[in-house]
Specification:
heterodimer; A: alpha/beta; 7-stranded mixed β-sheet; 7 strands; B: two-stranded antiparallel sheet; 40% helix
């Protein structure tokens, strides 16, 4: 009855009442899925969203418009049950510019973003940073080191070459290591908290 | 017929295209009324799965239905009192203004931080 899904279904606790979410982004092949898999309590899932090919306004509310040409775009996500009440979703989003509306929708209400950067792909890293800046989420820049990097850049060199703001946390994290990923996520929450403290209380 | 939109999709959504329901893909939905009389097979599946809280994105992945169709099916089930929205990073509703996001809630952020630090791995 459950369509094409064959993976064992692992439901949330009945007591789960609040969902929070964090975007995991970066250039192509930078380790996004690896990072999510390292800490997700479920095998990361993929779901599809319909986008209008025209892209202007008509995809509001992810509605279906059979009279328009729609295109399907996939995004993937994992999840972590934080306590009895809170569930944290880690999601990726398609990078292309034409999916910007879906991006904004997914990012709305997110705690923040982890931007994975790759010293072998400065251009891709720039593009990812630029997209996150544009949706206005607080973010953490994470260097996921690869063994075949031609030279090992220091974090300061990365900060300078990617023009990362002095206030933006930058850290090194092996995306395969659950402990390091856990620490990076906690660091992002702290960054969000600090940003809230800088705003006048509501 | 538009080649990009499979025929089956219209059966699934029951002709409710054009809804303006805004639903966060990671909001939690849960079954309020479990009887499935009068529901389509897909809607009955959703009512059964939502016995435990679940996010629309996860529902879509589990059922192999795109998010837009899931949203429309859920909208109808909410209207009919089978499903309620539990929470959201932006709670959904036709016209109700979105309440404060959990991401701006200091208490919840602190719980999230502590929960992450203590997460058993």
């Amino acid at each position: 009855m459950l369509g094409s899904s064959t993976s064992p279904y692992e439901p949330l606790a009945a007591s789960a009442t609040i969902s929070m979410k964090i975007l995991v982004t970066g250039g192509f092949g930078v380790g996004k899925t690896t990072l999510v898999s390292a800490i997700s309590e479920i095998t990361p899932l993929t779901t599809e969203a319909e986008m209008s090919e025209a892209g202007v306004g008509v995809d509001e509310g992810l509605e279906l418009r059979p009279d328009k040409t729609t295109t399907t775009v996939a995004f993937d996500f994992g999840r972590i049950s934080i306590d009895e009440q809170i569930v944290l979703y880690l999601f990726g989003a398609p990078g292309q510019k034409r999916f910007h509306t879906l991006w904004e929708r997914l990012c709305q209400g997110a705690v923040g973003a982890i931007v994975l950067v790759d010293t072998r792909d400065v251009e891709g890293s720039f593009a990812a940073l630029d997209r996150v800046e544009r949706v206005g989420l607080p973010y953490l820049v994470v260097h996921n080191p690869f063994d075949d990097e031609a030279q090992h850049w220091s974090l300061e060199e990365i900060r300078t070459s990617l023009d990362i703001d002095a206030d933006t946390p930058l850290l090194r994290c092996d995306a395969r290591d659950p402990r390091q990923v856990r620490a990076a996520l906690a660091e992002l929450v702290v960054h969000r908290q600090q940003r809230l403290e800088q705003e006048p209380a509501r | 017929m538009d080649p990009d939109v499979p025929d089956g999709l219209f059966m699934v959504v029951g002709g409710r295209s054009g809804t303006t329901l805004r639903l966060d893909p990671f909001a939690l939905v849960v079954t309020e009324r479990a009887d499935t009389a009068g529901l389509s097979l897909e809607q009955a599946d959703i009512v059964r799965i939502c016995d435990r809280p679940i996010a629309p994105a996860e529902l879509g992945a589990r059922l192999g239905i795109p998010l837009g169709a899931v949203t429309i099916l859920l909208a109808d089930l909410v209207d009919r009192g089978h499903i309620v929205l539990r929470s959201a990073g932006g709670r959904a509703g036709r016209s109700t203004p979105a309440p404060a996001s959990p991401a701006n809630d200091r208490q919840l952020l602190e719980k999230l931080r502590v929960g992450l630090i203590n997460l058993p791995l």
